[in-house]
Every structure is written in structure tokens, then in C-alpha cells.
Amino acid sequence: MAQQLVYYLDNNATTRVAPEVLEAMLPFLSEQWGNPSSAYSFGHDLGRHIDQARLQVAELIKAEPRELVFTSCGTESINSAIHSALFTRPDRRHIVTTAVEHSATLKFCAFLQKQGYEVTFLPVTSDGALDLQQLDRSIGPNTALVSVMLANNETGVLFPIPEICRSKGVLFHTDAVQAAGKLPMDVKELEVDFLSLSGHKLHAPKGIGALYVKRHTKYQPYIIGGGQERGRRGGTENVPNIIAFGRAAELAIANLKDKSNSIRELRDQLEASILQRIDGTSRNGPAEPRLPNTSNISFRGVEAEGILMLLDQANICASSGSACTTGSLDPSHVLTAMGCSATRARASLRFSLGRYNTAADVTYLLACLPGIIEKLRANAPVEEPLETSLG
Ligand code: PLP
């Protein structure tokens, strides 16, 4: 069956599985389908391949392979890091995080609050930046963990992880799900105890993640069962996805050198053209420091839902907010935290580019979008007072 042509500009939601990744994982769905924990070689020989994938993913963040635990997704990695910090330090019952984290962090922290833990959700400025002194002041003797994302999934804004204070013996976790494969990363420079990754954001399939646990950091497993992952995560390994993640990490390292600049150029071209050609548009967040692939733009007087519907009719995929929260009527918590009005937040779209985007995709978007905005503004003008630009 012929594949429908889509113009996919939503690579922060998920990414296409790379053909090389598919090729690497297929034998582990067809011929080599054993269980790595089995005593016979048809099973336990798979351990070699898992070790190789662990090495490849470790290389992506300059970790040691033994510091990586494979999980089922970024959400599990994040929940596991927070859970471990609290269980290995039962005397400390406070977490510091930010108001703009992904729901994997925010909702787990809100759940913990209901169980009696104390959580500080730090605000951000209109540029999406953190006040590092405020962060420092919020850490106390009761704080078990600071969890701050490396790159925001909606705006692409980067937080300066190495600059955040590491004193007071507090554990540090960073959600690097969006940064991985888009920026070079080194866990030693980041100085983190935990770091979360997700395969499907870098051209591996959905359903595979990894948690970096710094060597000698005490760890309490979140999923308890068999002795897989050296006792750190129960459950039979998802061998095909682990192999895929390894190959995807290897490709990401190679592409960081070759492709990163061209993605940035394409993003800059897309953003500049929209801002120039369509009245009443402005970027949400600063130009830098930002992921090279992400652009979040508000369109005065229109609702993102309407734009997305018409883009969809033109086979263009983009999004408003994160994929996990679209469908809800709430305006983006990230843009709201940056001081955007609910109207402006609901009038904002995220475009996120990836390895397979070409100049033709951007040209096509730019051919469609001005007409869509014009049509929506003509049909259903949403009155809104002029706001000062955000970031
Ligand atoms: N953290 C961030 C910043 C994300 O963008 C996402 C996914 O959108 C996640 C965590 C969750 O990852 P997963 O979908 O693998 O659970």
C-alpha cells in the first residue's frame, strides 16, 4: 500500500523510525526471539547484543554502559529517578522542580504531594528562564531531589543544568528526553545523578527508554520483579527495541555532526518567514538558548485547534503544546508559566523539525499557512487586546 505523503513538522512528539534502525531490530523480532534470561544459548546469547546497545546509548551521553538502565519510555525513566531519590533517602521529603516540566514529572510530583511530600514548582520568566538563585534558595535540608529538564518540549528553551547549584548533598535529575540526539551531551559536564532518555524522540520505536544512574548512586528499582538490568528493573527485556535504541543512538551521534546545522537553518528559515509574512505573529520564548529544531509561534486572533485542523487537511503535522496534553482544552502550562494569556497560549503552534525534513517541507508549509490564517481570521475573528511580545 502506498504511504500517504505527510509533511511532518512535529518531531518533538515522536519521530519516524530510521530505516537503519528498523533493519537492525527486525532479526530480533523474527529469528532471534529468545529470552535473554534463559540458560540455553538461543536465549542468553542475546545478552551480547543488549550489551552492544547499552554501549551505543551510553556513548550518546558519554556515560559508562553499566550506568544505564533500559526502561519502557521516558516517563518510566523520570518516575523511576524521582522514586529512587525518595526511597533511598526516606528522611528527606521535598522535591524541587519547575513549572514547565513535562507531565511525566509534573503529574508524578502532584501525585507525591497528595501522599504528603512537599514539592516546589519553580516559576520561569517570560523568556522561559529559571532564576538560579531562587532555585538555590528553595533547596533545604529536607530536599531529596532537584529535577530540572534540559530542553523544553514545547518551546525548545534550554536550562543551564551545569550552572545549577549542586551543594547540600541533594540528588539531581534531568529530563533529557528532548535534548538527546539534538545536542551533544556529556553526563560528567552536566554533573547529574540521573538523566532520562526516550528512544522514540530519536528515530527508535516507541516503548523504549533509558535511565542514567551515576555510578555509586544508591538506586531503588521502580519496577520490581526478575533480576534483569542487574537487578535495577524487573521485566523481560524488550530486546528488539533495545537493539533499535542502540542503533538510533549511534546514528544520532553521527547526525549531530552532519545534520544539526542544516536542521537549525531550516528551522530559522521557517520561523523568520512566518514572522515576516504573517501579521500578528510572534515567537514564544527566546531565540537562544534553544533546541535547534523547535519553533513555537503565536498567531493573534486565531485558535491553534483551527489552524491544526486546516493544516491536517493539507497533510501537515504540527502541534499545540505537547502531544500528551493536546486534546485537553487547557492552554499550555508552559506558555502560561511564561506569562502568556490563555488566549495567546491557545493561539500558539509548535513546529519541530527533524532529520528527514527538507526545504520542500518548509516551502509547502509557507505556501499553505498564510492562507489558512487569513481564512480563519476572516471567519471567526477572536478579539484580543494587543499584548507585549513574549521573549
Ligand atoms: N519528557 C519530555 C520533555 C518529553 O517531551 C516527553 C515526551 O513527549 C517525555 C518526557 C515522555 O517520554 P515518553 O513518551 O517516552 O514517555
Q: Mind explaining what this structure looks like?
A:
- 38% of the residues lie in helices and 13% in strands.
- It has 14 helices and twelve strands.
- The strands form three sheets. The protein has a seven-stranded mixed β-sheet, sandwiched between helices. Strands 9-10-12 form a three-stranded antiparallel β-sheet.
- Pyridoxal-5'-phosphate (PLP) binds next to helix 4.
Pick out its properties.
391 residues; alpha/beta; seven-stranded mixed beta sheet; three-stranded antiparallel beta sheet; 12 strands; 38% helix; 13% strand; globular; binds pyridoxal-5'-phosphate
- The poorly predicted ranges are 322-326
Helix content: 25-40%
Biggest beta-sheet profile: 7 strands, mixed
What portion of residues belong to β-strands?
5-15%
Number of strands: 12
**What is the tally of helical segments?**
14
Please trace the helix and strand order, writing H or E for each element. Answer: EHHHEHEHEHEEHEEHHHEEHEHHEH
Please compute the radius of gyration using only Cα atoms: 21 Å
> Averaging pLDDT over every residue, what do you get?
94
From the N-terminal CA to the C-terminal CA, the straight-line distance is 45 Å
Name the structural class: alpha/beta
Shape designation: globular
